[in-house]
Amino acid sequence: SSGSGWQLTFGSGTQLTVLPGRPP
Fold first, then answer.
1. SS3 label, residue 14
2. What is the dihedral of CA 8, 11, 12, 13, to 10 degrees?
3. Which residues, in sequence order, are CB contacts of 13 under 8 Å at separation 6+?
4. Taking phi first (over 0 means left), then psi (-120 to 50 degrees means alpha), and beta for anything else, what does residue 10 get?
5. pLDDT tens digit string along 1-24?
6. What share of the chain is helix, strand, coil (3-state, %, to 5)?
7. What is the pTM of this model?
């Protein structure tokens, strides 16, 4: 609904956005 997910930032500056089981 509101795109609430958490971003993981790795040492190389690579960002991974992980969304929960429900759509944003």
1. coil
2. 50
3. none
4. beta
5. 466 667 777 778 777 777 676 655
6. 0, 35, 65
7. 0.24
